[in-house]
Amino acid sequence: MAWRLLEHTADAGFEAEADTLAEVFLDAAEAFLFLAAGLTPGDFPGSGEKSELFLSSPDGEELAVSWLNELLFLAETRSVFFLPVKVTVSLSPPAIAASGRTVPLNGRVLSVKAATYGGLVLRTSPRPFLRMILDL
């Protein structure tokens, strides 16, 4: 696990730090799955349909929030979770391209309402880092 949970009085949060921004966004998706449903990608060995996801935004912070809110949107509207395998992140212009698989949530209720800007930190140096608070 390349991310860690943050203590928060009412919501939930995580921090991810990695060698690349792409790895940080992969870790953020894993942390989101854990906080939203108590699951890890290892809970879905080899299952799911191949899928791709593309997002762009005005800046890196919006890209991070949009990334997790898109995962939540897919879960709420299609009852699937997108498990990214490969992610490419650019900050000039801010965009993300991800390939992976979608797996059914099988009726699981997610505890997350949204990714938020409160407490949000995204940096690229000295090592890529993301801090995110999720509204429960």
From TrEMBL:
InterPro entries: Archease_dom, Archease_dom_sf. SUPFAM superfamilies: MTH1598-like. The keyword Disulfide bond does not apply. Pfam families: Archease. The keyword Metal-binding applies. One of its GO terms (biological process) is tRNA processing. Keywords: Calcium, Metal-binding, tRNA processing. One of its GO terms (molecular function) is metal ion binding. Residues 3-135 form the Archease domain. Belongs to the archease family. This is SHS2 domain-containing protein. The lineage of its organism: Bacteria, Thermotogati, Synergistota, Synergistia, Synergistales.
